[in-house]
Specification:
Chain lengths: 82, 658
């Protein structure tokens, strides 16, 4: 049941590139070819992320660090509102 | 320790921009390059220091990396060093993990990986002053309990906590805490077997090699381990770190709102660059006047001291004119390096890379290529080495191949000699210099665009970059950096340029002709004869034979172009007159002026594009592993430079310019 709820939550999760600017989110899953690289730089599950700008390369803060990430990579990060 | 009497070897490891090199400099008293952006260190460096107990330590600074799964060549250096895979290198006795206290959660992953390799570790909580300023509360005792290694709070820039760190490195060195997580049975078996295998192979660090072999067996295992490590870190920081709410708009956010804006950001970038180039002309005038004045005084003094003859001519027209002609650009080079160091130290470089990503992408590169290209404005060699931070191999090769087209400081003496012959005010001269740099860069990007598909198929480069907070420049370091560069320039003028000036003077003076006419003497000399051979090649560019020989000489070092002109044009007019005046007064045999704006432009275009630097070719060979690329680049760029200068002069003439 718990895993079903988790799947349901993931289905309703947004990608970081879809998420609204100026809001705080929690990372639910990092999934894709570059997922390990993303985790290493700070985009790992359960971390809080704030999106600052949209665009081809978007700006975010994770744990107080500013990171610039391309749209292709941001699509591999699933978030839910924090 | 590695051997009975040798110093203990300690490696500095940490994420990019954690402050490893600042700590390295603070401990060893060295002055290695520090930058407030990822990738300032791309090779291993070492130095020594003593602990309070008098034990000598060899400290090794390694390139920054986010993890020990390398994404780029510089990160691989660190991984190989710790895994004991680097030939001729013993693994370190202890690892100091440099953690940025302001971004602790992200930096603990690498610490955990290093602990897993079986090393004794001391963790440093660097930038503790900045963390305290932001209201972060760190508990080193709780962190030490969780990770099983000592945590030392310190600030490398303010030299705080260094004694405590040296005390933590006392002998005997602490025991390795060992791996802090356990995997399922089959994974543990695989790790044990792998370590046993590495031991049987007599690998210098079997625990490290064995773990890396077993854990990188498949994507599923690697994902499992990565998640397990992050779970451990999440649990550890709950007790060891309290972060205040981050709703307040920090200074960095306020500056970035302008600096990274798609329109205002570009405005700021262009304004900054224009200011740099304008300052190079404006502020350098006064000290350049002093150097020129000093040179003239020295020439007059030597003339009085030595009797007339060849030796006097060698000292005055060869040595003093040749070296002085290059040394006069010292103030401009100091200014350029000062501004580059200032931008690197403040944190603006990463913003420039972010802004440039769009433009770089059109050339098939990413913003990551911009930082090496920017280093290329100072000197192509560190620029080529900085490409090690580019993860994509094809993108890295393309960046190396186009990099010499970002104008390095050796070209500056040529530009600043010629530009004032075309433009008169400091503002238009600054604008022209900006245009020269922009032309080189834009051509480099177009070349990358054409070149990259020919290097083979590759994925589109992805942009992922940390933007460090702005900080006030480390003045001590900036001044050291500028002084180092200035000294290197003076040394080059006093050695290579002096030697070449003597050779050039010899070629200009011998063999002696019977005539007293300096023009006949010049034509009879070795240089004059060489010039006559070169003339058919360079006359389509609008150049005369003396410029042809100067261009040939500049393949030894670009700055020699100016020395060579200073020596060969000295025969036209009285000594003491400025070279620029002598050039503008010189005439062709038919009496028409030689150095017209169009000829000046043709010279500038040649120097923008020609690769006249053999050390760069050697470094390109080393970094690409092939003479094919290095020599192809050398000949390709020289040919392109010739054709571009030819096009400029011939089209200009057709359009009616002189």
């Amino acid at each position: 049941m718990a895993s079903f709820a988790k799947e349901l939550e993931l289905d309703s999760a947004l990608t970081l590139s879809q998420a609204a600017v100026g809001c705080d989110f929690q990372i639910r899953r990092v999934d894709g070819p570059e997922c390990r690289q993303l985790r290493e730089i700070g985009f790992c599950e359960e971390m809080r992320v704030r999106k600052i700008t949209n665009g081809r390369n978007m700006l975010c803060t994770v744990c107080g660090t500013r990171l610039a990430v391309s749209k292709h990579l941001a699509d591999q990060i699933k978030v839910v509102p924090a | 320790m590695s051997e009975a009497n040798s110093p203990a070897r300690i490696a500095l490891v940490g994420n990019p921009n954690a402050g490893k090199t600042t700590l390295f400099n603070a401990l060893t008293g060295q002055n290695q390059k520090v930058g407030n952006y990822a990738g300032a260190t791309v090779a291993r460096k070492s130095g020594t220091f003593f602990t309070p107990h008098g034990n000598q330590i060899e400290l090794i600074d390694l390139p920054g990396c986010y993890s020990l799964e390398p994404n780029s060549p510089d990160e691989k250096i660190t991984r190989d060093f710790l895994a004991g895979d680097q030939e001729g290198e013993n693994p370190p006795d202890l690892v100091v993990c440099v953690l940025d206290s302001t971004h602790l959660e992200r930096h603990l992953y690498l610490l955990l990986q290093v602990i897993d390799l079986g090393y004794p570790v001391v963790a440093t909580l660097n930038k503790i002053d900045a963390a305290e300023g932001r209201g972060l509360r760190l508990d080193p005792v709780a962190l030490s309990e969780d990770f099983g290694v000592p945590f030392v709070p310190l600030s490398a820039t303010q030299q705080r906590g260094l004694t405590q760190l040296k005390h933590a490195l006392r002998f005997p060195l602490p025991a390795p805490p060992g791996r802090l997580w356990k995997g399922p049975g089959d994974l543990e078996d695989a790790i044990a077997k792998s370590i046993e295998h590495a031991e049987s192979q007599k690998h210098p660090k079997p625990t490290a090699r064995g773990l890396l072999d077993a854990t990188q067996a498949g994507a599923e295992t690697a994902d499992f381990i990565q998640k397990t490590r992050f779970d451990f870190i999440r649990h550890a920081v709950e007790a060891g770190l309290q972060r205040p709410d981050e709703d307040s708009l920090a200074l960095t956010d306020r500056i970035d709102a302008y600096a990274l804006h798609p329109v205002k950001g570009w405005g700021i970038f262009v304004a900054l660059m224009l200011t740099v180039f304008w300052s190079i002309f404006k502020f350098a005038e006064i000290p350049m006047g002093w150097i020129e004045g000093g040179q003239e005084t020295l020439q007059c003094w030597v003339r009085g001291l030595l009797g007339e003859g060849d030796f006097q001519s060698l000292v005055i027209d060869g040595m003093i004119a040749g070296v002085g002609g290059v040394l006069v650009f010292l103030p401009q080079i100091i200014l350029l390096f000062f501004f580059i160091s200032l931008l690197e130290s403040s944190g603006y470089m990463a913003r420039a890379a972010y802004l440039m990503d769009g433009l770089m992408n059109k050339a098939g590169l990413s913003g990551k290529s911009f930082l090496p290209l920017l280093s290329g404005y100072a000197c192509a060699i560190p620029g080529v080495m900085a490409t090690r931070t580019i993860p994509n191999a094809k993108e890295r090769l393309a960046t190396i191949l186009i990099l010499p087209w970002t104008s390095c400081t050796a070209r500056l003496p040529v530009y600043t000699l010629i530009v004032p012959l075309i433009f008169t005010s400091a503002f238009t001269q600054g604008l022209a210099l900006f245009g020269i740099y922009a032309l080189g860069t834009l051509t480099a990007l177009v070349a990358a665009r054409l070149l990259k598909p020919r290097l083979g198929k590759t994925n589109a480069p992805q942009f992922l970059l940390e933007l460090p907070p702005y900080q006030s420049p480390q003045w001590r370091h900036v001044l050291h950096q500028v002084a180092d560069r200035a000294l290197a320039f003076v040394k080059k003028a006093g050695t290579i340029i002096l030697g070449l000036s003597i050779i050039l003077w010899f070629l200009e003076t011998y063999p002696k002709s019977d005539s007293d006419d300096p023009v006949v003497q010049q034509a009879e000399s070795f240089n004059g004869r060489l010039g006559k051979i070169m003339e058919p090649v360079v006359s389509p560019l609008g150049w005369d034979d003396r410029m042809g020989t100067a261009m040939m000489a500049s393949f030894a070092a670009r700055e020699v172009f100016r020395s060579s002109l200073a020596i060969s044009y000295a025969t036209d007019e009285e000594d003491g007159e400025e070279l620029r005046d002598r050039l503008s007064a010189s005439a062709r045999p038919d009496g028409s002026p030689l150095f017209t704006p169009l000829v000046g432009l043709s010279v500038i275009v040649f120097f923008i594009y020609a690769l006249q630097c053999l050390p760069t070719t050697v470094v390109v060979r080393r970094e690409t592993g092939s003479w094919k690329w290095a020599l192809g680049q050398l000949f390709g760029m020289t040919l392109f430079a010739y054709l571009a200068a030819l096009l400029v002069y011939q089209v200009g003439k057709l359009l009616g310019y002189s």
